[in-house]
Amino acid sequence: MTRLARALALLCFALLVGGPTNESTAEPSFVGEYTHHAVAADQAVASRAGHEILEAGGNAADAAAATMLALGVANPASSGMGGGGFLLYYRASDQTLTFLDFRERAPAASTADMYDDVAEPLPGPANSASQLHGLASGVPGEPAGVEAMVRRFGKLPLSRIVEPARRLASEGVSVSEAVSRMSGYFAAHMKADPLMRTWFEGDAASLPVGQRLRQPELARTLQAFGRGGSRAIYTGRIARAIVRANNRFGGKMTLQDLADYEVVERAPASAERFGYRWVTAPPPSAGGFTMLQSLAILEGLPERWRPMGEGPATAPLLHALAESWKGPFLDRERYFGDPDHVELQLDRLMAPERIRARADAFHPTLAMPPEDYDFPLEPNEPDIVQSDNAGTSHLCVVDSEGNVAAVTTTVNLPFGARYTAAGMVMNDEMDDFARSVGEANAFGLVGGAPNLPGPGKRPVSTMSPTIILDGEGRPVLCAGAAGGSRIVTAIQQVVMNQLLLGMDVHDALAAPRIHHQGHPNALRVEEFAPLPEALLDRLAARGHEREPIRNVANVQTIRIVRTDDGVRLVAGSDPRKGGRPAGR
């Protein structure tokens, strides 16, 4: 990857996850404690929308749906009806765990070489054809995902669940610091869209913090969705508006692409590690695999090489974490794709002897090259070729019945493909495919042949909604994150901080984080919550090349604590994005 491409990847991530607000650094109100129900989202108004639905008699599925829809209104840079995502749901009545994949799909006209020799639509950041305008958009999955979770698990009618988001869109929301900052970087692209142009006052270079952003067209779309369900989005007037907008901006989406969209139920990925059952996202997410293999490698190391106890992570543990991620990220590059189109040999990738080989390659005092952890399934496989060449949200809900919902939803990069249809910001999820083998996307993730675009395929993701169960099979923690390739490493650290290092939710979220994804061979360290210099020096002495980054993802979590007096729910919205939980 060139320095320019690497800088762009870091810029896109910094914009995606946003930064701290003055409010969030002033006092620890990003954590709330409740006894009845709790919602943790990265926008306070979205958490309150979920709380409103719970107070109206809804359950965790209803509240998750309402929170998700409200997030799309409050922060159209991160998620919305024009995007897609994943749901992991624990139903208390029968103790089942269900994973719903409502990830975007490539239009039927998509091909493996669709981005070859395609000109950049406009100058500016994140401006390739897979990131900007029509060819960047997959068929949105959020409307179908919301309807599926409500019909499958919910109690309230969709029209009631939609109401908080519809009201926010109609009456307006206050532009946050993160949305303002992102709009400043992408104003030129946004102003090319007839609707987003109206969000700016005159020649303003960004949306000012505190400006009232009203979205009446989106309110009408939400109302139609509440009355008619996903059919109102995927057929008829709104579907025609989506296709017209996509085609006007150079895309090839059709009405048939929309009509053919379906939510897919998949078996969650899970493993028993460190005394807990970790349940997380299966493919097309590679995030769950990365987390579970990292945990398996760590558990296989001698305890003196990955010490855990009370308090912050030590240099040996941070070193072990960084090393444990290198191999799984290499597997992502080579093997991962849409499981409906590519044969994924997960059993072989997770085979104990392969994990042991990676654990044996670990050196307690030296940062090893990523290739030292590369163990291809076939000895004659070609080497991974690396080219020289913020929009996601997560929410957690726990209701009074004990149901747990973990949802990650996204439009990919800030403001998606930077055009709208029927008031919805359309995603640029096609950038999560490999534009060509060996080329890196906006987050520096190198693409492999299994993840090339194709008709109806879903791109590989890092989104990893996660629920942790204790030895009796009871949920003890819900977590998930936004932040591209850093999602899974951030989740793992926040969960380990709580369950294995004894931190409370506040300290677990506020603690410094690191990230390593194999390529590029650099240890990302936060500026938001910097590691102590002495600790950085100890990591540098092991050979880690440090690269500063604004922050490592944006995590939401709810800790479920059972006592003799009942259940205590400790909900946290990451201070890195300024969200706030809600509950009772």
Q: What report would you give on this structure?
A:
The chain is α+β, with helices and mostly antiparallel strands. The chain has one domain. It contains 19 helices and 21 strands. The protein has helices spanning 3-17, 22-26, 44-55, 60-74, 142-153, 158-171, 177-190, 194-197, 216-228, 231-234, 236-248, 255-259, 287-300, 315-335, 346-349, 352-361, 487-499, 505-510, 533-541; strands spanning 31-34, 38-40, 84-91, 96-102, 173-174, 212-213, 264-266, 269-273, 276-280, 391-398, 404-412, 420-421, 424-425, 466-469, 475-482, 514-515, 523-526, 546-549, 554-563, 566-573, 581-583. The strands form 5 sheets. Strands 1-20-19-15-14-9-8 form a 7-stranded antiparallel sheet. The chain has a 7-stranded antiparallel sheet with strand order 7-4-3-11-10-2-21. A 3-stranded mixed sheet has the order 16-17-18, with no helix packed on it. Strand 16 and strand 17 form a beta hairpin. The longest helix is centred in the middle third of the chain and has 21 residues, at 315-335. The N and C termini lie far apart (49 Å). Mean pLDDT is 92; it is low at 1-28 and 382-389.
